[in-house]
Amino acid sequence: MKESFIRFFAPVLPNTADLFFRAIDNKVKEKVEKLNILISSPGGSVFHGLSLYNYLKGLPIEINTFNFGSVDSIGVIIFCAGKKRCTVPHSRFLIHGVKFNINGPSSMDEKQIDEHLKSIRIDQLNIARVIADTTGKAMHKIEEDMHNRTTLNPQEAKDYGFVHEIKSDLLPLDADLTVISEPMQHSKIQIPQIIQQVQAVSEPLIESYTEVLRGDTI
C-alpha cells in the first residue's frame, strides 16, 4: 500500500487551507492509498475547516489523523476526518462555540445581523454533528461541552471518543512527507529611522554633557 504523510502546523486560514488542498490533491494524483495527516493547529476559519473535513471524508483513500501538539477549535474537525485517530502523550484538544469577528468600524442593519446569527447557528450545528458522529455522543452533550469551552488531555480525549490510540511514534524514517506551515512574518527594520531616533535622544545629552565640562551648567 502506497502511504504518505502531510504535516499541518498552522492556523486554518485561506492560504494554509489552499496549501493543504493542493497537497492532498497531489497525493491523490500520485495514487497514494493511505494518507496520514499530522496536525497541530490553533484553529481558524470555520468555512475552510469544514470544507477540508468534508473533502477528506469524501476521498476514495484511507485517511488517518495524528495530533502531535494541540488541536483546537476547527482544527478538531479536521482531526475528526481520520479513520484512525491518534495523539501523542503530551497534547490537548479544545472544543468551543463559533464566534463572529468584526474587523474595524462596521455597521449592519437588522437583516444583516440576523443573517450572521443564522450562519453562526448553522456552523455551530455542523461542528456539533461532526463531533457527535465521530465520538458517538449525543448532540446535546456536544453542544453543552462546546458552550463550556471543553479542554481534553490525551486520556480524556480517548475516553471522549476522539482518539483511538495514544502513542509517541509519528512516522517512519523514510516517510514521504509534505510540510505545511504558516510563513513567519518578519517586520522590516527601518535603519534610517532608528539612526534618527538615536540621534534625537543622544544629541541633547551630548550637548548637556559638554556644557557641564565647560562649567556653564551644574
SSE order and pairing:
Layout: E1 3-9, H1 14-29, E2 34-41, H2 46-58, E3 62-72, H3 74-79, E4 84-87, E5 92-95, H4 110-135, H5 139-147, E6 150-152, H6 154-160, E7 165-166, E8 177-181, H7 191-214
Parallel strand pairs: 1-2, 1-8, 2-3, 3-4, 3-5, 4-7
Antiparallel strand pairs: 5-6
Helix pairs in contact: 1-2, 4-5
Structural notes for this entry:
It is a single chain. About 45% of the residues lie in helices and about 20% in strands. It is an alpha/beta fold and about 220 residues long. The protein has 2 domains: about 5-180, Alpha-Beta Complex (2-enoyl-CoA Hydratase, Chain A, domain 1); about 190-218. Strands 1, 2, 3, 4, 5, 6, 7 and 8 form an 8-stranded mixed β-sheet that branches. α1 (about 15-30) links the parallel β1 (about 5-10) and β2. The longest helix is centred in the middle third of the chain and has 26 residues, at about 110-135. It is globular, with a radius of gyration of 25 Å.
The count of strands amounts to: 8
Strand content bin: 15-25%
User: Which geometry do the CA atoms define?
Assistant: globular
Largest sheet: 8 strands, mixed
Mean pLDDT: 86
Q: What is the helix/strand order? A: EHEHEHEEHHEHEEH
Low-pLDDT stretches: 185-195, 208-218
Number of domains: 2
